[in-house]
Amino acid sequence: MVGIDGSAAATQAAQWAAEEAAGRDIPLRLVYVIDERTNDMSVRLQYAETALRAATRAVEATARPVGLETSIIYGSVDDGLAEESKAAVMVCVGSVGIGRVAWKLLGSTAATLAERAHCPVAIIRRHDTAGRWQRAAIAVAVENSGTTEAAVELAMHEASLRGARLLAVGVSSAESGDVAYDELDRRMDRWRTRYPGVDVHVVTTRDGICDFLAGRDEPVALAVIATDGDTVANLVGPVAKGVVHRARCSVLVVPTAVDRRIAGGIDSTSSIMS
User: Fold this and answer.
1) Is the pLDDT of residue 190 over 50?
2) Residues 133-160, buried b or exposed e (16+ Cβ, 10 A)?
3) Is domain 131-263 classified as CATH 3.40.50.2300?
């Protein structure tokens, strides 16, 4: 599912999601939320229909073999997209253009959605698709706790789908301590076995994921992070701290509640990718 608001950022999120949906062989749903408090409902409805048509054309231009649905719902953007996420495998939004006022006050609708969604949330940053971004890696933040396993699986899937290198970043924390390189390398071995076509590189850092990615010369297209509601706004929201802005990459957030629910089935037939 993609949240559409008529912005170029939302349209690019829809194009990104088209490849994701095609890779999973599932339909893509474009959703526009109309605030019921708006004064001129007819004008707002016309704008919503125009925005959805434009996003539909952009998706069709990708030539990805994906079924496409569009929907207009009513209510607040935060509540509407959070509710719709119950029936989604993933929700995608643009990093700018959605909730500009909320961005200044609370860290954007994108950050709020990442806290409340019932599935992973992709926050897609606009960037040039040519040049260095074609060679950009997928990064995943890995902690000592097992609750990041679903995030690792998602990152491996993204790297496989897009033919990208996977950067497994062992992130130390005050709660879980340092992540040993050898331990992380062994931990990634089973993922190498499951995704033999993915080139996996392991690194460890005592810096936060934002500082680590922001300081790298190698471009990173997507950072996959498992996080809880207390930290997600800092990771994807404020300009001074967020991965989207400082590291200049898109972010795929796996809410901790989702990760914990799924992590127990990673080694069985059920997983986050099914």
Assistant:
1) yes
2) eeebbbbbbbbbeebbbbbbbbbbbbbb
3) no
